[in-house]
Each structure stands twice: as C-alpha cells, then as structure tokens.
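Possible regression after last week's pipeline update?

I re-ran a chain I had predicted before the update to compare outputs. Posting the input and the new output here so someone can diff against the archived version. Not blocking, just want to make sure nothing changed silently.
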Amino acid sequence: MAVYSPVTKNELEVFLKQYDIGILVKFEGILEGIENTNYKLTTSKNIYILTIFEKRVQTKDLPFFINLKNHLIKKNFSCPQPIKNKSGISINLINGKSCVLISYLEGHKTQIVSSHHCEEVGKILSLLHMHTADFDEKRKNNLNYAQWKNIFLKCKSIDTKKYQNLFPIIEKELLFLKENWPKTLPKGIVHADVFQDNVFFINGNFSGLIDFYFSCYDFLSYDIALTVNAWCFATFDNFSKDRFFALIKSYEKNRILEDKEKKSLSVLLRGAAIRILLTRIHDQLFHPKGAFVEPKNPNEYVKILKFHQKINVGKYL
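New output (post-update):
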C-alpha cells in the first residue's frame, strides 16, 4: 500500500455520500507498499480502506479482483470484502481514478518472522489455491516473462548509470529463464504477492490476506516460489531451511506438490526473484515525483537471485 494521489476531507465526504456506511470521522494515508494509493477511513459506523488504483492495475481487471475476493469470502477465507455503494456497485471513481472501498481487517504484519509464521503462510496459500479451484474466471499474468523483458529493456534504455552493473546479470538470467521456464505445471488462481506487508496476524496466528491486485491464473508453484523468496530468508543472503520446510510442509497438508513441481522449483524461484528485482529497479528509476512512498531496494533481490543461482533448494524436498 502507498499514497500517490492526495485526497482532501471534502472530496472524501462527497465520495462517501454514495455509500451507506455513515459519515467520515477521520482518515489517514497508508504509506506502506508500492502499487496503489490507500487510505484508512473511520466513519460513524466502522473502519474501511479506500484503494485508488495507480500504475500497473488496469481498469478492465478490476471485476476479476472484486469477484475473486467475494468468492473467497463465501469460502470463509479471511480477506477484505468489497463494499457496494447505494447502487450496488463496488468499482467507483474518485478524482477521475478507479477505486474500491473494502472492509478493514484486524491484525498487523509481523516484524520478526518465525517458522510458525511461515507455517501459517503455507497453510493460507494452499487454502487459497484450493478455494479458487472452482472459481470460473481467469486473468492472464501481466507480469510474465514477456513483461519482465519489456521492463528490463525500458530500464536499460534510459540515460543513467544507476543499476548499470546489474544489467548484464539480469540479461544473462533472462536468457536462462527463457530456455528453462516450465510449461506443463498445475495451474490455478495465484495471489502472486504474499509478501509480509500483505499478511496480517493476531497473536502470531493468521488473521487476513490483503492486496489481491496481482492475482491471476498461473502455475501454483510459481506462487509458492514468490512466497518462499519473501518469507524464507532470515537476511537476503541467508536462506532459512527451517522456515522453508515449515512453509512447504504446511502447504502440503492441503495440497501435495507433484514431482515436476519440486523439480521446477529452483527455476521458479529464480524467475520469482527476477520479477521482483526488475519491478523494484523500475520503481526506483521511474518513481513519481511527490509520491508519499519510498520505493524498495532492488539489491535485496540481487542477493536472493544469486543464492538461487548457486543452490537448488528444490533438492531439499
């Protein structure tokens, strides 16, 4: 979450007249995250989150995200519920930008990750994959290999010395991934953003998953790879086997990984690292002026990529 689009109290009060959620008491911008603008709104009835869509989220994809969350809520999966306005519409506009109002989830992200947290994350990831098996909508992954290449070429084309030392590493890795990316792994709906900012806990136990705006139809084990990279490094060059085993074993209590998924995990982890590395470099080089958010450090994922280039953690399984 982040704040790119400032909104005034008067603008919010006018906007909220479309809803039956009480009157605005107070509001504050949420500075964490990188993709969209988010405000925490307290009304006379409850607390809500207003998300204003920026950058990579396309308006045509919003119904998929809304319907996915509604589907999961029907399965008693803890995620934000889209709020409909008085006309029964969930997707709205504020200051000319698409937005949604969603319920507020109790809990906080963890500051110190333990194997227990990874066990909880493995469980909720497998439940998400299971609960969406009967979800009848699909969305193409718009951050696939082709888009990694496009982002790389865009970053490489600008006149700056920043990150030039990383471009040969990335170019070589993209060639490797093109030749080795799997083609026939089990697919389904993936969250594709189960980072620590997006998982809430209460007393160490899972309380909710947020930010579904990268969700798409892709390899289920790619979702695992993104999650492992986000949760299983004690530092960015110190992989934790304990966390890894906790996450995978918990996941497999609900869905057993196929042998070909385990054999492909090393490549998927490298691709997952490249995806985050490239988007972080892009966000550093093309950071909007005046945005109330600090883009994240790409070098963290350089270390993760180099680790996976040396060690195939799939062999641990």
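Follow-up from reviewer: compared with the archived run. The mean pLDDT is 93. Marking as no regression found.
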